[in-house]
Amino acid sequence: MKWTAEAQKELEKVPAFVRDMAHRAVESEVMKKGYDEVTAEDVQRSRAEYISFAEESKSPEKKPTRIAVVRCETVSEVCPGVACFKAFNNRKQNFKTYGEDAEIIGYFTCGGCPGRRVSRLVDSLKKHGLDVVHLSSCMKLAGNYPPCPHYDEIRKNIESKGIRVVDGTHH
Question: How many other C-beta atoms are found inside a 10 Å radius of the C-beta of residue 22?
Fold first, then answer.
């Protein structure tokens, strides 16, 4: 399918992480209409309809607090995370200070000892406006599972990236 130069410029404005998907979606919409050339208007229309939700708002409103939760790799084998999400959704326990505009933008395991996945994922989430990381309550559990032996290292690593860390989620 042929793309006008203006359409290609419009496509470059689409966030890189969804650009290939946007390219296919625009072409699909244009083909449904029976055309064989993509214009800037086609890209703008598809962008507004399908991916504008993933883009940063340009409005002067207060930016929402963006949260990630790191959880224990071992505990994740038996825990689906319901209590963490329930505490967040109800703004209870360690989420009680957040307003309605707060959102969880990441929920991931540490990657196993010694927390090998955390640094890379925090770096990735910083690109999406990450403000705070909660180290899940399971990382400090005692009893059925040992507490995380790398907790302090993980905490310091995240803080060294300029991200605030909160101990716990639902306990």
Answer: 20
Residue at 120: amino acid letter: R
Q: Let me know: does 40 contact 9? Beta carbons within 8 Å.
A: yes
Half-sphere exposure of 104 (CA within 13 A, CB side): 18
- Strand intervals (E) in the chain: 2-3, 37-38, 66-71, 103-109, 132-135, 164-167
pLDDT tier for residue 157 given thresholds of 50, 70 and 90: very high
Domains 2-54 and 66-167 share a fold: no
Residues 6+ apart with CB under 8 A from 111: 73, 117, 118
Give the CATH number of domain 66-167: 3.40.50
